[in-house]
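Hi all, posting the design record for the shared folder.

TITLE: backbone redesign
STEP: 1 of 1
STRUCTURE INPUT:
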């Protein structure tokens, strides 16, 4: 990551479970060269940790508003996270 790296913890809410949001997130994150993870939350939201170059993280945050076909995103909340806890690659967590 040669451009100002950053990490963000994101909560996406709306109709985001049951529409392959996690699989879509991993595919988009890998296209942007991001690392991190994504998981479903008990409250029906999706939580993700994304890390990488600032421009790629910003692009992914915009993508979250679109989501996969069938999704209806009503909120994307992001907060700064530590780069130290970011895994290698991008994974779907249970």
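Okay, here is what came back for every position:
SEQUENCE:
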């Amino acid at each position: 990551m040669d451009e100002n790296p950053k990490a963000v913890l994101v909560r996406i809410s709306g109709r985001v479970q049951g529409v392959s949001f996690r699989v879509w997130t991993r595919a988009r994150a890998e296209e942007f060269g991001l690392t991190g993870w994504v998981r479903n939350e008990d409250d029906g939201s999706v939580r993700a940790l994304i890390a990488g170059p600032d421009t790629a993280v910003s692009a992914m945050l915009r993508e979250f508003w679109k989501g996969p076909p069938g999704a209806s995103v009503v909120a994307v909340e992001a907060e700064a996270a530590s780069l130290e806890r970011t895994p290698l690659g991008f994974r779907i967590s249970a």
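COMMENT: Residues 5-83 form a domain with the Alpha-Beta Plaits fold (CATH 3.30.70.100).
Let me know if anyone wants the other runs.
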